Amino acid sequence: MRILLFSGKGGVGKTSVAAATGVRLAAIGYRTLVMSVDPAHSLADCFDIEASLFHGRTSEILSIQPGLSILEVNIQREIRRHWREISTYITGVLRTSGLNEVEAEEMAILPGMEELSAMMYVNQFRRESRFDVCVLDCAPTAESLRFIAMPTTLDWYMKHIFPMQRGILKAVRPIANRVSPVELPSDSYFANVKELFNKIEGIDELMEDPRTTSVRLVTNAEKMVVRETQRAFVYMSLHGLTVDQVIVNRILPPEAREGYFRGWHESQQRFLAELEAYFAPVPVTTVPLFPAEVLGLSRIEELSRVLYNGSQDPAAVSRTERPYTFTRTGSGHEVHVHLPFAAKGEVGLFKKGDELVVEIGTMRRHIGLPISMAALTPVRARLNGGILIVEMQEAK
Ligand SMILES: Nc1ncnc2c1ncn2[C@@H]1O[C@H](COP(=O)(O)OP(=O)(O)OP(=O)(O)O)[C@@H](O)[C@H]1O
Ligand SMILES: [Mg+2]
Questions:
Q1: Which residues line ligand 1 (CB under 6 A)?
Q2: 138 and 45 share one domain
Q3: Is residue 349 part of a domain?
Q4: Are 236 and 268 in contact (CB under 8 A)?
């Protein structure tokens, strides 16, 4: 199964582009699912599906046309389905602090639950080989970065914190429950966490395999958006995801060269040139601003024709180079992390257990080292042409 992730700043056109990609894929003959991970869903609206304002129908897989289905992950439903123990526990704790049932239930939605639920679906569809391509319409960048980071964060939690917490609680629960102001989590809580973890097991490998997962960044040719796109690119690389296309949406047509929109047209052309230079060799594709909203199947098809020329296969694998690699050199080992746009002072680096921790600004990634390198420590790092090269040697 191929996984195509569409990410980008709020309002740039992620949902429209994801929908258009789904339409193209289905036309080629792939069994395609377009899934919305954004809690503020608009996928059904984009396809102009007759539904009530707060539709529930698309929280089940809904067939749009042969070979094309959509799904909007509904978090309240997912909680009932998968998170019962966890949310029951948290709701219980929150109630003791004086919140009523409904408030407590709403507060018990932890950040990241939507993302995790979506991952479970992706994993399930892959196991069942139900779809050939899964197109993910992500939430605006900040939240979708959390989505990307989820498997590694959770993996880290399960390895380092979970066993400890569980062990400690086993020992202290009998006494603690008598003195603690809140009930401590029960064994079933831990069983639930474990079970959830099993459901997303393996997803990190899928996401880091460029033959399976591609990230496509949607952007507009405006300064603020361009910067966020660069940050997203770095973050994706840091998490081992391969960005294989940048889509610049809403480019003004040549007619706008004169008159009222002239200034806009000029600055767009300038940022477009910048984008192409920044992201090379990753291809930058442009989409014009249409005379109307991209609403309903025929407009989505039109966008799809422009985007894929009526001939391209959006599921084709174009880049197979991983964002980071481990190599052996004459004198030792090196870790190469593809980090365009990062400046020297911004990169922090240290070793923790058998993991290499790379920090860029406020982003952090634990990179699990292969066994042959686990005992090594970083001795030197340099940024060279957008690649962070970390030299690793035996600890003295
Ligand atoms: N090329 C285009 N020409 C004209 N209208 C467009 C174009 N691309 C997107 N739109 C319109 O812009 C609006 C926002 O697009 P869309 O919902 O796809 O963005 P989004 O990135 O998914 O937003 P959000 O971050 O809110 O999820 C929609 O009304 C859509 O129809
Ligand atoms: Mg959207």
A1: 8, 10-16, 38, 42, 140, 249-250, 287, 289-290, 293-295
A2: yes
A3: yes
A4: no
Using 50, 70 and 90 to split pLDDT, how confident is the model at 213? very high
Q: Does 379 lie in the same domain as 250? A: no
The answer as to whether 191 is a domain residue is no
Considering the domain architecture, whether residues 54 and 143 belong to the same structural domain is answered as yes
Indicate the top mutation candidate among 15, 43, 48, 114 to test ligand 1's pocket, ranked by most ligand atoms within 8 A of CB: 15
Ligand nearest to the CA of 12: 1
Listed residue (316, 318, 290) closest to 304, CA to CA: 290
pLDDT at residue 284 in the model? 94
Q: Is residue 314 part of a domain?
A: no
Locate the ligand 1 atom nearest the alpha carbon of residue 218 and give its number. Answer: 21
Distance from Cα 146 to the centre of ligand 2, integer Å: 16
Relative to the CA of 249, which ligand 1 atom is closest?
1
Enclosing domain of residue 334: 324-394
Q: How many domains does the chain have?
A: 2
Q: Which residues of 100-131 are buried (b: 16+ CB within 10 A; e: fewer)?
A: eeeebbebbbeebbbbbbbbbbbbebbeeeeb
Pick 43 or 38 by higher pLDDT.
Answer: 43
Q: What is the pTM of this model?
A: 0.81
Mutate to test the pocket of ligand 1, among 14, 16, 297 (most ligand atoms within 8 A of CB): 16
Residue 166: per-residue pLDDT: 67
Residues near ligand 2 ion, CB 5 Å cutoff: 14-15, 42
Domain final position from 308, 340, 361: 308
Q: Which pLDDT score, from 0 to 100, does residue 142 have?
A: 64
Does 119 lie in the same domain as 209? yes
Pick the last residue of a domain from 266, 284, 308.
308
Structural domain contains residue 101: no
pLDDT of residue 299 exceeding 90: yes
Please report, rounded to a whole number, the percentage of residues in the chain having pLDDT higher than 70: 79
Q: Where are the beta strands (DSSP E) in the chain?
A: 2-7, 32-36, 62-65, 68-72, 133-137, 213-220, 243-251, 284-288, 324-328, 333-338, 347-352, 355-360, 363-368, 376-384, 387-394
Hey, whose CA ends up nearest to atom 16 of ligand 1? 13
Confidence band for 94, pLDDT divided at 50, 70 and 90: low
Q: Which residue has the higher pLDDT, 217 or 116?
A: 217
User: By alpha-carbon position, which residue is closest to atom 11 of ligand 1?
Assistant: 293
Question: What CATH number corresponds to the domain at position 278?
Answer: 3.40.50.300
What atom of ligand 1 comes closest to residue 140's alpha carbon?
A: 25
- The model's confidence at residue 174, banded by pLDDT at 50, 70 and 90, is low
Q: Tell me, what CATH number does 376's domain have?
A: 2.60.40.790
Cα 42 to ligand 2 centroid, rounded to whole Å: 6
Helical packing angle, 187-200 and 84-96, nearest 10° = 140
